[in-house]
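Homework help board

Subject: predicted structure for assignment chain

Our instructor gave us this sequence and asked us to write out the predicted structure in token form, then describe one feature. I got the tokens but I'm not sure how to describe them. Can anyone check?
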Amino acid sequence: MDENRIQDYRNLIQQLLHCPSGEEPAILQANSDLLDLGFVQVCEAEMVSPPPPTLSPNLRQCDRRY
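My token output:
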């Protein structure tokens, strides 16, 4: 997987996380070329990443519990 593709996956993840509710299907359809095993692998990797340092201590505590 090349860095450009990984960045495309991350951009798609960010779009999905920050879009208004209900717009997800349209975003996925518009980016269907990115919906492959690589996308799943990047999603999994992003999920196990530590929380950003700017995340409030209370949210970091919740993140550790779940």
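Reply (TA_rk): Your tokens look well-formed. For the description, you could write something like this. The helical segments are 3-18, 24-30, 37-47, 57-65. That's the kind of observation they're looking for.
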